[in-house]
Amino acid sequence: MRYIKFMRNNKFLLIVFIFLLIISCKTLPDAATGDSDTQTQTQTQNNVFDPLKVSQAYYTTTRDEVQQFIEKLNQIIRTRNYNAWLETLSQEYIDLYSSPDKLKEISDSPAMRLQRIVLRNLNDYFIRVFVPARNPDRVQINNIDIEFVTENRVSAFITRIDNAGEELREILYNLEKINSSWKIIELKVE
Questions:
Q1: Are 157 and 140 in contact (CB under 8 A)?
Q2: Maximum distance among all alpha carbons in the chain?
Q3: 3-class DSSP assignment, residue 103
Q4: How high is the pLDDT of residue 12?
């Protein structure tokens, strides 16, 4: 009986952490901002970005850069280096996850309440939510794929096989190239 209860609680916590991961990495695009990268001719005559027209060379270069970024980020997560993590975030992401309203929203989630965790600042969010939700040991760099949202924004994915043998594609990060550096961003739902 204890084992069944233990397993139910662990499944529940896993579901809640996945939910928190999804909340922190929404995948709907908003308008492009940041520096304009001239490495590709991916815009149509109407100046509307078309992700299907990204050249293979630009895709490969961008994916390689994103893989290097995630490799560096995995090391930051392994060492729980908060200051280095801050350097990987966009200002909007920092502002959002530092806000008392967002910290309260996350703290009020069932998993956090069950563990009696109250987030007070961005460092708490990093240690109690971000690090556990993004275990670097499960992220194989050679299994990273990207989808362009805009010319300088991508969503990074990993593909896994679940217990039923089905292929699952999970989003890891939404990223934007800002001043020639990749940063974690929060895509806004419009």
A1: no
A2: 65
A3: helix
A4: 44
| 62 vs 53: CA distance, rounded Å | 14
Burial letters 119-154, b for 16+ CB under 10 A, else e = beebebbbebbbbebbebeebeeeebbbebbbbbbb
> What is d(CA 158, CA 164) in angstroms, rounded to the nearest whole number?
17
Helix axes 100-107, 91-98, angle to 10 degrees: 60
Question: What pLDDT shows up at residue 95?
Answer: 97
Cβ partners under 8 Å of residue 21, min gap 6: 133, 134
Which whole number is the average pLDDT over 50-63?
92
- Position of tokens 């969010």? 125
Give the CA distances from residue 12 to residues 24, 119, 125, 133, 166, in Å, rounded to whole numbers and listed in that order: 19, 20, 20, 14, 21
Place of tokens 């949202």: 149
Instruction: Report helix, strand or coil for 188.
Output: coil
Q: Which tens digits make up the pLDDT trace of 82-108? A: 999 999 999 999 999 999 999 999 999
Contact 37, 58 (CB under 8 A): no
Pairing of the two strands 144-150 and 181-184: unpaired
CA dihedral sign of residues 168, 172, 174, 180: negative
